[in-house]
Amino acid sequence: MWKTFLLASFTGFLLSMSWSSQGFPGFLFIAFIPLLLIEWQISESPFKRKKTIIFFSSWLAFAIWNAITYFWLSKARPAVDPTAMEVQQAWFAYLAPVILNSLFMATVFMIFNFFRTKHGSFYGYLALICFWMSFENMHLNWELSWPWLNLGNGFAHYPSWVQFYESTGTFGGTLWVLLTNITLFVGLKRLLQREARKKYLRFFASGIALILIPLVFSIIRYSTYEEKGDAVEVMVLQPRLDPYREKYQKHESQIAQELVQLARENVNENTQIIVGPETAIPGRGQSDIKHLPNNPLFGEVKQLLEERSNLVFITGAELVNITQATQSPSPASIQIERDMWYNAYNSVVKMESASNDFDVYHKSKLVVGVELFPYTSLFKPILGTAMLDFGGSVHSLSTQEERSVFSNSFNSAKVAPVICYESIFGAFTASFVRNGANVILVPTNDSWWGNTDGHLQFLDYARLRAIETRRDVARAANSGVSAFINQRGDITSALPYDTRGTLQKPMLLNEELTFYARNGDWLARLALFLAGILVAYHFSGLVLKLMSKYSKR
Questions:
Q1: How far apart are CA 297 and CA 311, in angstroms?
Q2: Quick check: bond before 21 cis, omega within 30?
Q3: pTM higher than 0.90, yes or no?
């Protein structure tokens, strides 16, 4: 039995060693093979409780992968003098997704085992691909969303390998990984069964071809792709502000002044757009959306815009909307007194010279447990109103239905304001592009988990959004890493972590739509459709058996 768990651990470590930003994604092509070997050998063995062994083996493999890859989540607390409560919250924020996500993955693997043992290997492997991709799609769309380990994300540090994401999105990478693992495993299985050499070599050759053909195509596409669009000069600000203590101990006006001062120190005659990080202008309940033009926190920004003509300022802000109503205006509304409610937002605000107008976009993909209380009607009676406090909100934020695109009076830039966590979601980001965006700006605050691998993985995921949409990406981080990313997914310049400063570069405004930008996660929808057919096939077989049984009576 120890060999079984050793093989499962091997899968977990191979998956972990594949991951960005320090891993090598080549391991992804063989990572599932030890686990597939376990499933086959245990299913064919005389052991009792076979499904229990397979389930716990797969859970162990996926738990190791989850535990290692985002161990940085456990560091989500101040580096100096963390309180006991903050330490407990950090470990809960880490262990909850490790346990739940690995259980979800193990459940998908058991669905594969069920179909393979009931209907044969072809339907089993097809079920593994379809249900795994459907699981990843679910993680992109439900309220317990945590798509960090979607398999296609594993290539984020190697953008030249996945230029075909402009057509498939990250689900193309997931399909690539699973199909290659299955093909190579079938070859190994035939080798172990001592079948004819020609039979297993055919599968090994097919597996190698599955790796090389998309890889060679992608590298050629990477080498020959020509970036498109007119240029606009963009500056990103990195103020280096501690999100736990300094941000909420300094006076709000001082923080706003320092942010604008950083811009004023570095702006030049070529600067056209300035971008501040997520929640750079803190409100903490004081920046009412209806009174933004008169809000003193934006006074410094307006003064800078008055000094400079043809300048656009885009920055993150914490906003609220206070309304009078006899009943709650929305599920996220919070009652402050009788018939008085407020909704809190993590937003991006756009201002420009010679205008008193504000364009606003509200973050709509929220971090579960920190910005979003999931499935309120189900969990609130059990958990109360508890939320994790990691440099953000302690109640559910409000969102908006449509993806806003910011245009301006001075140039042809149409900005997609993709806020922090939203940059993990490919189809979500593509919806900005379908609404007309020709450049992507990502205001973010990664520093709440310190100088760990988390913010580097996050940076790499933004590179995938550049490939999928063929849009330049500028990332303005609170403490780093701020960066510019071109349409091929290359980081062209970056500001190191824990550094105060700015970056300025021309960004190209591409107007063309990629196949992925037009169609979103079409591969995931196809996988879900096929998964439905597999379920229908299974239940139709049960119905036919029952009909046959009763007809013989």
A1: 19
A2: yes
A3: yes
Residue 549: beta bridge partners?
Answer: none
Q: Which of 201, 207, 209, 215 is nearest to 184 (CA)?
A: 207
- Render pLDDT for 331-361 as a digit per residue (tens, 0 to 9): 788 888 888 888 889 999 999 987 888 999 9
According to the 3-state scheme, what is the secondary structure of 500-543?
CEEEEEEEEECCCCCHHHHHCCHHHHHHHHHHHHHHHHHHHHHH
Specify the DSSP class assigned to residue 397.
P
d(CA 390, CA 75): 11
* Strand pairing category for 473-477 and 273-275: unpaired
At position 293, the amino acid (one-letter code) is P
Q: What is the reported pLDDT for 448?
A: 81
Pair of tokens at residue 4: 């079984």
Question: Residue 542: is it exposed, middle or buried by C-beta count within 10 angstroms (0-12/13-18/19+)?
Answer: exposed
Residues 75, 95: Cα–Cα separation, whole Å = 12
Determine the 3-state secondary structure of 388 from DSSP: coil
Handedness of CA 164, 168, 169, 173 (dihedral sign): negative
Burial of residue 233, with CB atoms counted within 10 A of its CB: 0-12 exposed, 13-18 middle, 19 or more buried: middle
Within 10 angstroms of residue 249's Cβ, the number of other Cβ atoms is 8
d(CA 413, CA 350): 13
**Phi and psi for 157 in degrees, rounded to 5?**
-85, -5
pLDDT digits (tens, 9 = 90+) for 321-338: 988 888 888 878 888 888
Structure tokens belonging to residue 431: 């919806």
Residues in the chain where the model's pLDDT stays below 70: 77-88, 248, 283-286, 376-395, 552-553
